[in-house]
Amino acid sequence: MNFQKQLAQSFIWRGLYFVTVLVMSIFFSRYFEAGNAGWIFYLCNNFSIILILAGLTIENAITYYSSQKTINDDSLAWFSLVWSIIVSFIIFTGLWLYLQTSTGSPFITNDQYLFYAVCYIAGLQLTNIFTVLFYANKDFFLPNLLMVLLNIGVIILIPKQVGTKNTNVSLVINLYFAYFVISGLALAVAFIYTRKSWKNVSFPSFNNIRFIIKYALMALAANVIFFLVYRVDYWFVERYCTPEELGNYIQLSKLGQMLLVFPSIISSVVFPHTAAGMQRTEIRENILRIGRVTSLLYIILFVLILLLGDWMFPMVFGRTYQLMYLPFLVLLPGIWALSNLYILSAYYGGVNKVKINVQGAFIALIVILTGDILLIPKGGIIAAAMVSTLGYLVNFLYSFLMLKNEQTVSIFQYFNINKDDIRWLRSFIQH
């Protein structure tokens, strides 16, 4: 299957998955409203940084070695399963010990906190690893089909649990967090079963494990910095703004992340191809063509949000989300930059130049931290969106300049859409 056909298949199935994620998020947000939903999403944000540090984002190394076919996929699958169990146990033990000496949260008990943390972290660890194993083997159908079905199940269950006088709030939250671990286990079982890995229980050699961890450690710095670039503003907003403003800001941030579906789909195809040795000039042309199409779509989106967003956000997410409009407009240019940065980062990862991703993200982090410290206390969520946009643009421009040093490209090529791009887009849709 060629690059364009894989891109089309990935877009269809991953796009469908993210549509169901959006619907699930809307149900959840409307039920809990901005103040409570913001707190739950903020909790997930804290769990995510724990997962990155403890799990070493091992999925990056799994993708790389699976795409190169230098380590057997059966061995990678069993290693990934054991790795996830070990990481989950370490996190559970660490949090349990921490909670013995901590006052905990005023909103939930220590047992609830442990349940939420382990479900979210273990589930996301399994989901991340086995999703990339599927994608490295160019299978975009099965993992996304499973996740779509699970999402539809949650979408059906949530309305049955809410909207009545006897609504069990705790049950809804438990359902939300249990969803993560169920998804991860379903993907792990599906991969092992379809690959018949259960017939060949094996693990990578000691040297290969060393290579996996070494690669993961190199990528870890990039992933920690990237995480902070994307989400360090949550901590500042939580400290200096009201719970309702936090809920609005995290919701618009999550919506911005939804807009990264298209580039993340593309990057999941770009990485295996570059890691497998596809011609870099061909990859470059695809990167620029996708960038031009993306720029056109973002211009159209900006105009639509400018005209309709003021009433659309409260209508979709509920009346408590009336603060999303202006910050989202401010954030959109930054999301455009991230969209193109995703693809460039996948390219550098595929050619084993992760340090470029680290350097660009580190510069962006300095910009964002400085801006957040100076502006959020007085400027609130509008200042947070403005600072994030500036940091994302700086990050993208740095990565683009590195590409420019390697190949003959111009920043204006991102805006000079032509007939060939339209024909490419038409043929892509037809696939």
Mind explaining what this structure looks like?
With 431 residues, this protein is mainly alpha-helical. It has one domain (3-430). Helices cover 84% and strands 0% of the residues. The chain has 13 helices and no strands. The chain has helices at residues 3-55, 59-68, 73-101, 110-136, 141-161, 169-194, 206-240, 243-258, 261-275, 280-317, 325-350, 354-406, 419-430. Helix 2 runs parallel beside helix 4, helix 2 packs across helix 7 and helix 8 (243-258) crosses helix 11 (325-350). The chain is globular. Mean pLDDT is 82; it is low at 271-278.
Number of separate structural domains: 1
Tally of DSSP β-strands:
0
Radius of gyration: 21 Å
* Overall outline: globular
Q: What would the average pLDDT be, to the nearest integer?
A: 82
Structural class based on helices, strands and sheet pairing: mainly alpha
N-to-C CA distance: 11 Å
Order of helices and strands: HHHHHHHHHHHHH
The residue ranges in which pLDDT falls below 50 over 5 or more consecutive positions are 271-278
Helix proportion range = over 70%
**Strand content range:** under 5%
- How would you sum up the major sheet? none
Helix count equals: 13
